[in-house]
From TrEMBL:
Protein known as: Glycosyltransferase family 92 protein
Bilayer-spanning residue ranges: 7-25
Membrane topology, record value: Single-pass membrane protein
Keyword Transmembrane found: yes
GO-annotated cellular components: cytoplasm; membrane
Domain of life of the organism encoding this protein: Eukaryota
Keywords, in A-Z order: Glycosyltransferase, Membrane, Transferase, Transmembrane, Transmembrane helix
Organism: Gasterosteus aculeatus aculeatus (three-spined stickleback)
InterPro entries to which the protein is assigned, alphabetical: Glyco_transf_92
Subcellular location, principal: membrane
Molecular-function annotations in GO: glycosyltransferase activity
Length: 441
């Protein structure tokens, strides 16, 4: 090859390279710079930055913000911001809104600390804000001082549950949502979780919301499948990146910054997340099944209970422990195909402890989310409407904990095979999802 030809070829390849390089750059730009506002905007147009995370630190404070929801149940207040606040440094806060692209004037925030904190330094806290007049609010932010200059650095929260104005109440998307407040500690009990989720489905649950700090590798794969299908909604919950979360429920016993990986906050978050889309919300753990004993499913149970108790909005369900030992191998399992699956088989657990009703006995709850303002784990803290204790022969919790410290003698246990009524219905779906997760050979 002579020299000019070689240069011409080199130039040609350079041009092609540059063409693809430019194409690549323009493809990438919108994703990479999503958080930076477009240029040439008038001053104070907003939002500057939108938080897409489930935990957002509030600048110049020790507090964390979680989410903002429209809530006009109390006169004069419009928006509820759910947060995790450091109790010893709670200060005055001011609300500022994005009103169709324009920044509003500030309004004072009303700070409502939840009454349950179990001694921990951080507590679930709501800030209630009033929207200024003539503001079509889309986003909200909090300021420690009522000036606008500090806003550039602080990502604002989108306001959720905005009902379309004037429209009749829309039909609810779901009848029953289960809120699983936390997954943490590389939990990998796949067999139990798959059985439990399939049981929820048979009982009429439409959606399971799971707040996820960490989980084990096999459970991760299983939950990816459920979440692609839409039955499970995973909410990232990286609380360990912001605080030192406690594995216990009481500060004096286990120390740390916040109760059980922020369980009290996620339960409240889940109620507001479900408020405009689910008739009922079930607040229980992943090792618990709220089980009707006189009905085939939750729909028929709640139809009857609600008819008998029209003013009740919170239904307390008694907890019954099905200990790890002794157990009775069910005649259907453990099937050999489940041998490679991590976790235990809840169908084995047919012995149940009788709860000691002379001491405090914790309940879990089925609630109408629109009747609840603030909740704790075993009871609601603030509500509109009343509570009802559901008799245990109508509905109770089948609780299969991963371990039970004290083993009771067989004479003190009762046989309860309610779960096995569903075995035949359970197996097809269960084996299908375990196969999809690559856990059955
Ligand atoms: C408020 O803003 C939303 C989104 O920007 C828009 O869809 C809605 O029509 C507005 N409502 C009013 C009353 O202007
Ligand atoms: C909710 O339950 C009602 C009956 O109580 C039923 O008509 C409706 O289809 C159910 N909705 C969903 C989403 O399952
Ligand atoms: C619930 O059970 C009732 C009565 O057995 C049945 O008619 C209904 O179809 C069931 N609903 C669901 C959602 O499974
Ligand atoms: C749960 O969170 C961990 C840690 O962020 C992540 O690695 C995992 O993929 C998440 N699992 C699911 C199913 O979302
Ligand atoms: C398991 O259940 C069967 C049937 O109820 C019973 O015959 C058997 O004795 C039980 N085994 C144990 C170890 O409890
Ligand atoms: C001044 C200041 O602390 N700014 C921070 C506010 O918070 C965002 C993210 O939450 C940070 O990126 C800023 O540096």
């Amino acid at each position: 090859m002579d020299k000019p030809k070689c240069v011409r070829w080199a130039f040609f390849f350079l041009l092609i390279f540059m063409f693809f390089f430019i194409l690549w750059i323009t493809e990438r730009t919108p994703g990479t710079y999503r958080m930076i506002p477009p240029p040439h905007q008038a001053p104070y147009t907003c939002p500057f930055q939108i938080s897409e995370r489930s935990i957002t630190p509030l600048n110049n404070t020790k507090h964390l913000l979680v989410s903002a929801y429209m809530d006009q149940r109390v006169n004069g207040l419009d928006v509820r911001i759910i947060g995790i606040f450091k109790r010893d440094s709670i200060q005055k806060l001011h609300c500022v809104f994005c009103c169709a692209g324009k920044l509003s004037s500030t309004t004072p925030g009303t700070i409502l600390q939840h009454s349950d904190n179990f001694g921990f330094p951080y507590v679930t806290t709501d800030v209630m804000c009033q929207i200024p007049q003539n503001c079509n609010a889309t986003h909200v932010n909090l300021l420690t001082q009522p000036g606008k200059d500090r806003l550039v650095d602080q990502p604002c929260l989108p306001i959720r549950n905005k009902r379309s104005n004037g429209k009749e109440k829309e039909k609810l998307q779901f009848n029953f949502t289960v809120c699983i407040s936390n997954l943490f500690g590389d939990y990998n009990n796949v067999l139990q979780v798959a059985q439990t989720l399939e049981m929820y489905r048979l009982l009429g649950v439409d959606r399971v919301v799971i707040y996820n700090t960490t989980c084990g590798p096999d459970l991760d794969r299983l939950l990816q499948i459920y979440s692609e299908e839409g039955f499970v909604e995973m909410v990232p919950w990286p609380i360990d990146q912001h605080l030192n979360p406690s594995r216990g429920w009481l500060f004096s016993q286990s120390g740390g910054d916040v109760h059980y990986f922020g369980q009290l906050t996620t339960l409240n978050e889940c109620i507001y997340r479900s408020m405009d889309r689910s008739r009922y919300v079930l607040l229980n753990d992943i090792d618990e099944i709220i089980m009707p004993y006189k009905h085939n499913n939750l729909t028929s149970l709640m139809d009857v209970l609600q008819q008998q108790h029209p003013n009740k909005g919170v239904f307390l369900i008694e907890n019954h422990i099905f200990p790890k030992k002794p157990f009775n191998e069910s005649k259907w399992g453990p099937l050999p195909r489940w041998r490679g699956v991590p976790g235990f088989n809840i169908l084995d657990r047919i012995y149940k402890e009788e709860p000691d009703r002379t001491i405090y006995h914790p309940h879990k709850m089925i609630v109408q989310p629109r009747m609840v303002q603030q909740t704790s784990v075993h009871e609601v803290l603030k509500m509109i409407g009343q509570m009802f204790k559901v008799p245990p022969d109508v509905c109770r919790i089948i609780h299969s904990p991963i371990s039970t410290p004290t083993q009771r003698p067989l004479e003190q246990l009762h046989v309860d095979t309610r779960l096995r009524d569903f075995t035949e219905q359970l197996l097809p779906g269960l084996n299908k999802v375990l196969r999809e997760a690559g856990l059955l050979t």
